[in-house]
Structures are given as structure tokens and as C-alpha cells.
Amino acid sequence: MTLTGQSLIGAANVRGTNGAFHGVDARTGEALEPAFGGATQQDLERACALAESAFDAYRETSLEARAAFLETIGEQINAIGDALIERCMAETGLPRARIEGERGRTVGQLKLFAAVLRNGDFIDARVDPAQPERKPLPRVDLRLRNIALGPVAVFGASNFPLAFSVAGGDTASALAAGCPVIVKAHSAHPGTSELVGRAIQRAVQACGLPEGVFSMLFDGGLAIGQALVADHRIKAVGFTGSRAAGVALMKIANARPEPVPVYAEMSSINPVVLLPGALAARGAAIAQQFAASLTLGAGQFCTNPGLVLAVQGEALRTFEQAASAALANIGAATMLTPGIHANYCKGVERLAADPNVERLASGAQGGRFDAQAALFATTAEAFLAQPALRNEVFGPASLIVRCKDLGELHGVLKALEGQLTVALHLESADHEACRVLLPTLERKAGRILANGFGTGVEVAHAMVHGGPFPATTDARTTSVGSRAIERFLRPVSYQDLPDDLLPVALREGNPLGLTRRVDGVIHREGNRDD
Amino acid sequence: MTLTGQSLIGAANVRGTNGAFHGVDARTGEALEPAFGGATQQDLERACALAESAFDAYRETSLEARAAFLETIGEQINAIGDALIERCMAETGLPRARIEGERGRTVGQLKLFAAVLRNGDFIDARVDPAQPERKPLPRVDLRLRNIALGPVAVFGASNFPLAFSVAGGDTASALAAGCPVIVKAHSAHPGTSELVGRAIQRAVQACGLPEGVFSMLFDGGLAIGQALVADHRIKAVGFTGSRAAGVALMKIANARPEPVPVYAEMSSINPVVLLPGALAARGAAIAQQFAASLTLGAGQFCTNPGLVLAVQGEALRTFEQAASAALANIGAATMLTPGIHANYCKGVERLAADPNVERLASGAQGGRFDAQAALFATTAEAFLAQPALRNEVFGPASLIVRCKDLGELHGVLKALEGQLTVALHLESADHEACRVLLPTLERKAGRILANGFGTGVEVAHAMVHGGPFPATTDARTTSVGSRAIERFLRPVSYQDLPDDLLPVALREGNPLGLTRRVDGVIHREGNRDD
Lengths: 530, 530
Description:
Two copies of one chain form a homodimer.
Chain A: E1 7-9, E2 12-14, E3 20-24, E4 31-37, H1 41-59, H2 63-80, H3 82-92, H4 96-119, E5 126-128, E6 142-148, E7 152-155, H5 169-177, E8 181-184, H6 190-206, E9 214-217, H7 223-230, E10 236-240, H8 243-255, E11 262-265, E12 271-274, H9 276-295, E13 307-311, H10 314-328, E14 333-334, H11 338-353, E15 358-362, E16 370-371, E17 374-379, H12 380-385, E18 397-403, H13 406-415, E19 419-425, H14 431-444, E20 445-450, E21 489-495, E22 515-518, E23 521-524
Parallel strand pairs in A: 5-22, 7-8, 7-10, 8-9, 10-11, 12-13, 12-19, 13-18, 17-18, 19-20
Antiparallel strand pairs in A: 1-2, 3-4, 5-6, 6-21, 14-16, 15-17, 22-23
Helix pairs in contact in A: 2-4, 2-6, 3-4, 3-6, 4-5, 9-10, 13-14
């Protein structure tokens, strides 16, 4: 599997002529071969035209055909073997075990959506039968199903080069919904992207699907991604990355003659609340787990614990000392890119330079592009007075906010922007205090967890990886778990259509055996006669 | 029930001091008493503060309590009696039967959402139980439910003074979801709004709910509505009205530090496709139904058939003659406001002045503010060349587009913007032609209907009153039917929370008896042991 540096335009591999860029070895900063050609506007035009022409056929493929397609993608990814792991390790600086685990997660995610397809509930098939005898007016026959939105643009994320990238959750859920996908590959891992993109390309061919179901464009700059979001054929956008980039894409999408949804997962500092009972009972143990969560993947998780809230006092001092000691013992780790490393260093310097912020600990030093973990503390008063302290520092840095009491702690929570996660550390004695905080936490975060940390996002049916702005641009959605498919669907109602013109999912006799809602009540057809 | 002209700020009735305006008798253009005081920014601030403080308590009221509240609103509306009907007739020019029917629809809608609440499926309760033995890592316990978004701003519509206004579908679905509502009353029917608003206010009190659950503000201008959408406590917006106003509100909401969804139902010309078999078999009969649909409610339905597509020829000429004759026999009807009447006249004049447009028929003339129906025809070529011909003319005007063949007709459909409805008139012989058109129709419209007209929107579980932009700002949603509640919900995931801290909907043993999804599969708890 020699890398070519070519964009994938449907079944064709096309060398982009709009400049070129290289992947970079995260450890050394040196360029990796080959050069990747930047896609041209013509490449983009061709990819969009193919996606548009594939859409109607692809969205009406059978549930089984799409499920098999997703599974084939997973098989093709596994078939790349170690070449994928090694290239990905080089481009991201992440260790083998992490990349192998992420590959398993990516393939598992594709399988989850295959199961979602075979289950079919996402179609939300509904039948309100006609009532010709109704007075004063007869009732028409109404049937509803969800259909795919249209071609979707997906932006690969730097921090999950497999699970949130070319064949990641956005792509898997959009393809499951019936949407062709055009990926703008992340320029931080172009080789990984090419390998995975070609796996999808092979799966499209193996499954006999229209070539426009998948394309992938390389670009070292911003122009192609922006043009993609602006293109009238793109009907939704999936993105994981920085707040600035996500908001920029949202603005482009909103300014279109036909605005379209942008699902951007952006910025979160993931508050950790240490309740008094838990802090007193096992502060040192929590500190160990905290240090491990903070430094996992060089602190480059969206759900990294960037903020710790607790009531000041002896127990918090114990926690701070234990966390500081633990951080000093954790080795430094390479960051994803030299640019991310530089930004991290700047963020840490800004905190260190703040007269209201105390530096509690620094992690071990390492290589040139390794992140040195950092732990800071401040008062609730200072934190509330300085909105800049609420900004995410992407990497293994965290800020402890010492609160006078639980009331002040609650006030800090209320002042926060939207979050992906909030973690509560609690004992039985803390339940009453938690009950007071929970309504605020529900309004702030997509996921609330007890006695754990947000790093580690289970791919499941009850997962929400989302949250109010700026955690995401759309708090009504999740980018992980089976509900992610809902982002790429819209309902269509059919009134009095002859049965043979209805979509199969809605025909009399329920030929697909779907769970349908009849007059608002869920049941499997046939059950009525059982 | 004397009208006071006061805004309703929670339980208080407050005379706005920011200018004043009157309702207007639609037939005569004369001012109706009393004057309505324009709400001040202080009034707005107070309403938002009350809604914010009511939110956490209100959203956790029991399903039964919210269902009873919605039913009480319906009872209170009915209890107003004839005073509501008469004021509404005066302010809108709509006839008694229509207003009485709309009141029934409004109360029915409240009952539908009471049933949706008692059913509980909208919570989407999900449980993925812990798997402590799972390798390599144990699985956490994850549970998910939908919660209310937060306080919602609702803008009453001029054309449905009851069903899409103060206690209309937006308010009913938002209140059902658990969102406090602040209505900006439509200045075209302030007296109707005050009567209905006070009915809701009484229901809040009768049900012992926090007063901030409902407020209503009057304003003769735009400032209060715009400030409402910009307020940080408002988390979603429901709107039915013009494209310009809906887009303006969307822009305000997108420009907020925390952007929020705007559900604006705006502009649709609702294409009617007359297929050759149907046109030949019963063109004259369809023409009668068309004329009735076009002039229903003085043509002021969102789903009014503003565009007719057919293949040119003898059968179409027969249809045109029959429709023209039918229109001439239908009496003129008063429009909602003098301003809407003036805009309608301008729109008709623009069409009449177009050299590529032929005027086929005019309806009967009537009073000063009555709409004179108008039927025009043009060629597909001219229609495709002039985008302005695709603009909605709000009122009983329609444009027939004569196509050379079905291919050209398909091209016209592809060139259209998003629509609320598309109507197909077909016979068995037309099914093949329909099959070719359907993929395009699904992409263009929220509802596809056969052998009928879009006017008449059933309040049902399988209804979609929505569609791609500019029919609405969010094609993923419907503003009519039980799925309308989804607009005001977002999912929250709970990980490893102790049972007594979980929301009741997610606790062990399923105390609410909800249909829950366990590991992705729907079932009622207890069924496993049956």
C-alpha cells in the first residue's frame, strides 16, 4: 500500500495541483513522504457532482446493503494491517496501543451503525390510517419516514485520527443515514487519511455502490474546506476541532442561500466537581485518577478534565499535593503536531503569568514536541472575574478553582459555558449537595458522570457526546453513539399515496418488518393479531 | 372579559409604556379598542427572568401535571366563549365557522400533546447497563433522557390567530417539552392574543405552576421581538410568518454569543403537479377542488397552491378554463390586514405586468380589503428564466406553468426551493411517471400528497408541516403533529449515577413505566420477565 498523495474523487485517484503539503513526524517535526497535492476547485466540483448524482440511489439502498457496506469498510480498514498503525503513530505521535485501540473503536462504530440499520428504528416509520367515516371531515391516510438529508461534508479531527476522522463517527453515521460523504482530510495525518479513504473507496466498489458515495479531498490550507461547506449540494457538515474553526464553518453554512446544519464539536473544559465527602474520604485516590485522565493521550481528549472545582480546606490541599506528585511521575508525551504543541505552551504560559493563578505542579519534561503537564490553582473570585480563565487549553493542563463553600462552587458552575461532560466525585453524604447542583449540570453538559472522568467515551445507545454551545454548535445532537445518525435525517410525510408509490418502509403489511408507530403507539406490525 | 391592552408578565398584567397600537377591524380598517401598550425592555427583562427562574421547576413537573396543564389551557380557551370568536373575527376578517374550527383545532392540539406527555416516548429513555466483567475495560452504566431546552420565544402568526398563535402548536409543544414560553403577540390580533394569553395565565395559576411558565408581550414594532430572540435566557424560537422576518430572526439568533435554534416556518408555493392521466380523466373536477383550495381563507394558508405544473395541451386548456370559471364564481373574502391586502395586490400586479405571464382569470371583486383571486399562466421556459416567478404571493393567486413534456416538468420541480407540500394528481396510468418524480419531491418538500391539496394540515403523529429552506429554517423538524415536541428537547447522558440521583425516568425498576430502549432495543420494563 504505497501512499500516492492523491485525493479520492469517487472511484478516481486524482493528484491535486493546488499546492502540496507533507505529513509531519510528530516526534521530530520532519516531513514525511509523499507530498499530498492540494485539491483544486475542479476536484471539489467533481466530488460534489458525484455525491449529488449518487444520493438518490444510495439513500434508497436496502438497510441490509448499507449495513454490509459499513461492515465492509471495517474489514477493509483491518486489512490494511500494520501499515496503518505505523503511519498513524508517525503522524500523530500517539503510541501503538492507543492507535490499535482506536482502530478497534472505529471498526466497532461501523458495526454499531450496521446494527442500527438492521434494527431500522431510526426510520421512525409512522402510520396514521385514514378514517373515511370521521366527522365533520374524513381523515386522510398519513405515513411518515425519515430520509437522508443529502451529501455530507466531514472534517477529520486531529486528535482522533481514526475514530473521529475519515471513517469515524461522522462518516459512519452519515453513510448509515443514506448520505454520500465528502471528507476534507485533516492535514495533520494525510497518510493515515489516504489509507483509510482508500479502504472506504474499495468498500464502495466491492459493494457495487455508486462511486459518488465517498470522496476525500486533501488541502494544506482552508480554501477547499470552506468551499465544500459553501457548496449548494452539501446538506450538512460534521466537524471536530477548534472553536474558531467550528464557528467559522457554521458562519459559512448560515450565510448560504440555503443554510444547512453544521455539527461542530469544539471546545470543552469538562469540569470535575470534588464534593466534600468524596474529597475527605479518598482525595488522594481521586488525585491519582485525575492525573491519569489529564495526561491521557497527552491531554488531547475533547473530554480532558481542564477544570476542577472544590471547597477550599485541608482535604483540597491533600488532593492538590497528591495530584501534583502524581503528575510529576507521569512521563511527557508527544503532542499531535508542532502547532498544537506551540499553542499548548502559550496557553500554559498565559496561566503561569496570571498573578491570580498559582502554579501547583509541572509534569516531566520530554522531547521537543512533548507536552509538559501543568496544574494550576486559583480562587473562585478570580475565576469569576476573568472570563479568559474559562478558555480551553488544549493539552494536559488543568486549573483548580478553590471555592469558599458549595454555594460559591455552584455559582462557578452557573458561570460556565456549555460542556461535553461534567464529572462529580461523591459519597453518599454528598447526595444532597449533588441534588442541588444537578439541574445546573444538566443545563451545562451533554453527559454527567459520577466517580469517574470524561475521558473514555463509550460508543453506546445512551451516550451523548455533545452539549450546549460552545461544546457543540447543536446541543440537540450527539456525535458518538447510535443517536448520531439523527443528525443526517429529516422527516417526510406521505398523504394518501397509492401503496405501490409509497416507500417500502411504509407500505401496507410492513414488508420490512419495522417497528412502526401506528396512531402514535409503537408496535411491530402483526403483533396486533398475535 | 374586558380587554385591558396589558402585557402578561408572569402573573402580573402590566401596561406597556413603549408606545401603543390598536387592533384593526379587517373589514373596515378602523381601529378597535382598547389601545395595547408596547412592552418595554424592562418588561422583557422581567419576563425572561421569570421564565429562567421557572425553568428548572417546570421541566421536572410530572408528565401528568404537564398534561393536565395543557388540558386546562384548552378548557380555559373554550370558557372564553363567543367573546373570543367575535374579537377574532373582527381582527382577522375570517368567518365564524373558520374561527370556531380553528379553536377546536387549537384545543385538540393541546390534547394531543397531553397524550404525548402521558405516553412518554418523547423522553427517549435509554439504559445501557454496566458490564463490569467486560474485557479489556469494564463498561460503565449509561442512561439517557431528553430534557427541555430552556425558555422558548414564540411569535404568533397572522394567518392562524389561534392554532399558530398564542396557544398554538409552538406554545403547546414547547410547554409539553417542559419549556417556559414567552409569546410575542402578533400585532394584527392583539385582542385575540390577550384573551388567549389570559386563558393560559389562568391555567398556570389553577395548576399551581411557577408564574414564569408563561408571559406575553405586546409591541407594535419589531424591537421587543428582536430583543427577545437576542436574550441569553431564550434557548429556542418558534415563528410562523414571512421569509424576511423569519430570516431576520434566524440571523439574530445565530449572532448571539450562544447561537440558538430558530424554527421559522416561512415561505412555500406548494406545487401542484397534474399528471397526464389525471388531467385527461378529471381535469375539470380537479379544477373545482383547486379553486376551492386556492381561495380557502382568502388564500392565506401556508399550504396554499401557488403553483400548478402540467404538460401543455388540450387537457390542460380544459383545466384552465374550468379553474377560471370556478374562480369567477367564488366570492371575494377579506384579508387579514390592510397591509397583507396591499402586498397581495402588488404581487398580483407584478405578475400581471410580466410580458411572459398570461392572466387567465380574476375572482369576484369585493370589499375594500377583500382579495380578488387571480390565476396566471406562463411557460416552463419563462418560469425557469425568471427566479422572481418562484416567489410566494401570499393570497389567492396561482401560476400555471405549461411544460412541453414531463421531462421539462421535472426540470421545473428541480429548480424550485424547499416547500411545505407538493400535491400530485394522478391515475393508475401515471404511477410510472410519479415514480420518476418522487425522489425529487422528497428532496423538495416535507409532505407529498396524492389527489388532494395541501390546505388542511391534519394534527397527527405522521404529519410533517415543515420542509427544506425557505419553507422552514430547519428541515429536520415539523411545527404540526406530535414530532413538533422534538424541537424543544436535547439529550443528556448520565454515567454511573447512583440511582437516587438519577431522574425518575431512568431509575431502576422503571418507576414511570416508560417504554425504554435497553441496549438499543425498545421494550417496556418487566416485559423481559413476562
